[in-house]
Amino acid sequence: MVLLILALVWAVFLVPQVLRARAEGKPADSIGAFRKQLYVLSRTSPVTDGGWAGPEPRPVSSYAFDHDPYDRPRRSEVRRRRRQILVGLLAGMSATLVLGLIPGLQVLLVVHLLLDVLCAAYVGLLIRARNLAEERDAKVRYLPSTAGVEPDLLLSRSAN
Question: Which of 48, 87, 99, 160 has minimal Cβ neighbours within 10 Å of its Cβ?
């Protein structure tokens, strides 16, 4: 019975993630993955004279394709994902509390306490991430753009 309830809790968290991944259109077939690789290559490689400007292309591993370090999510996507995780934790907490109050299912109260600890830790991490972002925004100053300055002038300024 405990294993069935644990499987149900896992399904509550995993099924929405799988459905969201399918809805976002992540390629599940080799043709879609190949098209995505070509798109990433065309976006990142400089082209001169209509040809390849860089070294010979190497085979791309599946991990490198799935995890593009320069393809970072936007703030709105991050907020939405964090909100979904928090709502999932709260739903799991409430479900295990209600089911734990039923006679014979008091084992779920232990699961509820575990979810309470996880939720408190997650909220703590969210607060820490917000504080770090505010500190970074207060401290980081971007340099002015040098788009209109001649390269020779930049060299003469940096040589002194």
Answer: 160
Which value, to the nearest 10 degrees, does the dihedral of the CA atoms of residues 77, 83, 87, 88 take?
Answer: 50
Rounded distance between C-alpha atoms, residue 106 and residue 97, angstroms:
9
**Under a CB-based contact definition with an 8 Å cutoff, are residues 115 and 92 in contact?**
yes
What token pair was written down for 129?
């991430």
Count of structural domains, the chain? 1
Token couple for 33: 């993955």
Measured CA to CA, the distance from residue 104 to residue 6 in angstroms comes to: 16
Residue pair 99/105 in contact by the 8 Å Cβ criterion: yes
Strands 47-48 and 51-52: antiparallel
CA atoms within 13 A on the CB side of 145: 2
Question: What's the domain range around 128?
Answer: 73-140
